[in-house]
Amino acid sequence: MLKVGLTGGIGSGKSMVCGLFEELNAPIIDADVIARRLVEPNQPALALLVDAFGGAILNKDGSLNRTELRQRAFSDAKIKQTLDAIMHPLVYAEIERIVADLRSPYCIIAIPLLVETQKSHTVDRILVVDCPVELQINRVLQRDNISREQAEAIIAFQADRQQRLAVADDVIDNSGSPPQLAEQVKSLHNSYLLLATTRTTSA
To answer: Residue 144 has what pLDDT?
Structure first.
């Protein structure tokens, strides 16, 4: 199976692109969805986070207070490193487990921090969803109800636009209209099907 790692900065439109691939029947594995599932109440990952950061990161019902943890992580590099050290191995292990059970020509693995975690070797191709930084910020402000300073802090922790484009095998420009975006996804879908078939034939 051809594994396509989809990445891009916050607000670049990764979820929208994943949705378009899903409409074309491509399996989608979303690292963010996996991470949220891993920290649900009574899950081992949540206990590890509480051990590392204390009970203040929990809501009264015992669930993770994502806002509190996010504010801590993006205001202190050491906290961010500790959080990543706990979560990333668990997330990648779950991705591998899911991929092993798939039966499809190719799959999309959405990993926002694919470049930052230096896990490019875990996928066959890297697809970067790209747009100008100012457009990223505007989208995040509209979507997440956070301050511009918070949005800029999150972007500063991520690989920059040039770093992502430098490792990209494929690029989707998400600064245009929805029809333009859909056309790019359809073109890549056909390309991935062809690549997957070629790999299978030559194997």
So the answer is: 86
